[in-house]
Fold this sequence. Notes:
Helix content is 41%, strand content 19%. The protein contains 11 helices and 11 strands.
Amino acid sequence: xxxxxxxxxxxxxxETACAVIENGRSLLTSTVAxxxxxxxxxxxxxxxxxSRQHVLSIIPVVEQTLVQSNVTLKDIDAIAVTRxxxxxxxxxxxxxxxxGLALGTxxxxxxxxxxxxxxxxxxxxxxxxxxxxxxQFPLMALLVSGGHxxxxxxxDHLTYRRLGSTLDDAAGEAFDKVGRLLGLxxxxxxxxxxxxxxxxxxxxxxxxxxxxxxxxxxxxxxxxAVLYEVxxxxxxxxTLPVEDLAASFQSTVVSTLFDKTMHAAxxxxxxxxxxxxxxxxxxxxxxxxQTQTEFKVNIPAFSLCTDNAAMIAAAGYYRHALGHxxxxxxxxxxxxxxx
Length: 339
């Protein structure tokens, strides 16, 4: 594929991010301005607050990224930007910034699906480090985040077949809601992981949904089971065993994600597995995939699991190199997954 240097912008939720990447893999700089502490007081992301903060942060973040990359816009070959899914008010800030840069420089503008970006985070390494082997097709990609949980068979670059997805709550959403039930700080994922370290994962037997499609996910029933258990314990005036509840809940989610991914990978002849998205930062999930499977498993570095612009730049590079550009008007036709 032809060499190219991509500058990318990501503002789908509550992180204002920008990155520069070369040839789809070599990361020069990734800058992320997080709003996590700002939203913690609300127990979740407050969309209006997020979009206003993006307006304040976007220009300094882009400028800092260019400086730290030791490049100027004249050294950039294309601009990539998250076009969705995400919060509308947040997305429009990043998209308008990217459109302005593209119009001012004449550079191509690449609209990238946020979910595709998460998958391409597995291709990235830091510039100057030894070059790791690229993930090999066909790949089974488990995409697990706050808003999405799905399994995609990836047979080539930009070519996907969705095998299953969540029918209700995504795994990350379930972590946040259960964390709130247990009185833990937002975001729920890290809080539950920390609490679970001192807990017994076998104390509570929480249910796993049985679905017609074995590759679909459902965590709503699990969340409700935790709610009933919490309410029952409170009625008995018992001290809430937060650590055991967190460990039992986390164990159920991790085993569900692992078992379904392994089933899909074996049935569809995958060579390797990708685990990506915010929940891929969960340490027990990473451990089970790295130690209990015959497949090579590609999991991004912790800094690339949560929302960032490096993953958007990587996906944007392959769209640019293979001629799948969406243009200044931003392609609104469904492009995820491509089957």
